[in-house]
Amino acid sequence: MARAQIARTRPPTRPGSILREDVLPPLGLSVAEAARELHISRQTLHRVLAGLAAITPEMAVRLGKLCGNGPTLWLCMQQAHDLWHAERELVSEVSRIRTHKRAAQQAALSLMRAEPVHPKCETTGEASGLISIRPYPHRDSATMGQAVANMP
Q1: Domain residue limits, the chain
Q2: What pTM was estimated for this model as a whole?
Q3: 78-84 contacts: CB < 8 A, separation 24 or more?
Q4: What's the mean pLDDT in 32-41?
Q5: Which of 16, 79, 94, 141 is 20 to 30 Å from 55 at the Cα level?
């Protein structure tokens, strides 16, 4: 089965599960020890590990420091998980919403003018099939106009 098909049928793994299964054991940290190092309560960490609480930006900063990989990865994992579920829960309702192509073009143009999207959170469009967001090498108005004109 192709990777894109797997991404559509299986939800992204919760970041708390990754932390519980793949991060804490190799570090030799118990939940209580990890919570102490993160300066949070053991109950708070347990809720994240059990999938009862999402990774917040504040928690992502703490986990990024503990693991040495920065907060963006943790937030992106949570976002991918949440988006996958939201797309499936709202499929019926969203199918009744009319798409305004011009609005999408304006949003893309605004994104190109803004700071580049962090590479770890770069949208591939696999889950939603909507738009790929990629930093452009040249963000002058001619390049942005051409990019918007070439949008599907």
Answers
A1: 3-93, 100-149
A2: 0.67
A3: 78/14, 78/15, 78/54, 79/121, 80/12, 80/127, 81/11, 81/12, 81/13, 81/14, 81/15, 82/54, 83/127, 83/128, 84/11, 84/12, 84/127
A4: 98
A5: 94
